[in-house]
Design goal:
The protein is an alpha+beta fold and 323 residues long. The chain folds into two domains: 4-174, N-terminal domain of MutM-like DNA repair proteins, CATH 3.20.190.10; 180-317, Orthogonal Bundle (Helicase, Ruva Protein, domain 3). Helices cover 28% and strands 23% of the residues. The protein has helices spanning 4-17, 33-39, 84-88, 168-176, 188-198, 205-208, 220-229, 243-263, 274-282; strands spanning 22-26, 42-50, 53-58, 63-67, 73-80, 92-94, 117-123, 126-129, 144-149, 153-158, 162-166, 306-310, 313-317. It has an eleven-stranded antiparallel sheet. The longest helix has 21 residues, at 243-263. It is globular and about 55 Å long.
């Protein structure tokens, strides 16, 4: 499932290529025909992400809300910019399972990109730059729930968990149920809100970090990595975690989320420079402390990393450093 940094990057792509333009909306698959008709022909005026959810606002005060879930993805085509980190990776920029060598610069995402070009770009848990577009708009491929089309760019949505048209009040109601997102809820107030929620809960911290009503955007990878970075046992009840450690978790999430949005990768190991940084961009094996490293030696103490089912997801952790 795409974690928070991926959704923020997708919102940036919409901000760059759709906001300020009149949009044709359709549902090639047919399942969203009524919703698409409500948006068709209107100008997109805003695009934002909160955690794992994205909201696109149109000029008649209706919003398209999308939650990609486990299988959703946006395919962009036409005159689009390719993120520098994607281009340098030869179009293969998987957050969780990319392999190969990356050569090239790694500029800020979507802020230091060259001129648009007619191409394809898939954005979900992984990002992949595809072949050039020969004709525009391209024919829909597969079960496209929603197609958003401008004069030069289109975006096709497939397989989302949620896709609906909301009023402003309905958008506010959805966001009110979400925990703070460091890129939306900035400053000490957000840290205090997260801390106050965690320190009163008997729920294990390894579950609280995945609870989107507690904190927005953290998924399975960031959970495992943040807990290791804090040397925190995943089973510790939130109310038993010292307040300074809880605040440290929030500050670490602020840091890691910014890195993820900038690079397009969940880079969770500190001090990566030169060849090690290039390797980390290219391969998950060089990017994480514990995630997906079952049985491999802990990078700190050498103890084999364990994996267990926890909250319906696979949890990776070190039984010594996180005892």
């Amino acid at each position: 499932m795409p974690e928070g940094h991926s959704v923020h990057r997708i919102a940036r792509q919409f901000g760059l290529h759709f906001v300020g333009r009149r949009v044709s909306a359709s549902s090639p698959q047919g399942r969203f025909a009524a919703g698409a008709a409500r948006l068709d022909g209107h100008e997109m005026v805003d695009a934002k992400a909160v955690g794992k959810q994205m909201f696109l606002e149109f000029d008649h005060h209706l919003w398209l809300r999308v939650h990609l879930g486990m299988y959703g993805a946006w395919d962009f085509a036409g005159d689009i910019t390719a993120d520098a980190t994607i281009a340098s990776a030869g179009g293969r920029m998987g957050q969780t399972n990319q392999h190969g060598t990356v050569v090239g610069a790694h500029e800020d995402s979507l802020s230091s990109i060259g001129a648009p070009r007619r191409a394809r770009l898939r954005m979900a848990e992984q990002e992949k730059l595809g072949a050039s577009v020969e004709s525009f708009p391209p024919e829909p491929v597969g079960a496209v729930r929603v197609r958003l089309l401008t004069d030069v760019t289109c975006a096709d949505l497939r397989g989302p968990t949620a896709c609906d048209v909301l009023t402003p009040d309905e958008v506010l109601a959805v966001i009110a149920k979400l925990g703070p997102d460091p890129l939306v809820d900035k400053g000490k107030k957000a840290e205090d809100r997260f801390t106050a929620t965690v320190v009163k809960k008997p729920t294990p911290i390894g579950l609280l970090l995945m609870d989107q009503s507690v904190v927005s955007g953290i998924g399975n990878v960031y959970r495992a990595e943040m807990l290791f970075r804090a040397r925190l046992n995943p089973h510790t009840p939130g109310r038993n975690v010292p307040e300074e450690v809880v605040r440290g978790l929030w500050r670490d999430w602020v840091k890691l989320l910014r890195i993820g949005v900038k690079t397009g990768q969940m880079l969770t190991m500190d001090g990566l420079r030169g060849a090690r940084y290039e390797a980390a961009l290219a391969s998950r094996d060089d990017r994480h402390w514990v995630y997906h490293r079952t049985g491999k030696p802990c990078r700190v103490c050498g103890t084999p990393i364990v994996m267990e089912e926890f909250g319906g997801r696979k949890l990776y952790w070190c039984p010594v450093d996180q005892a």
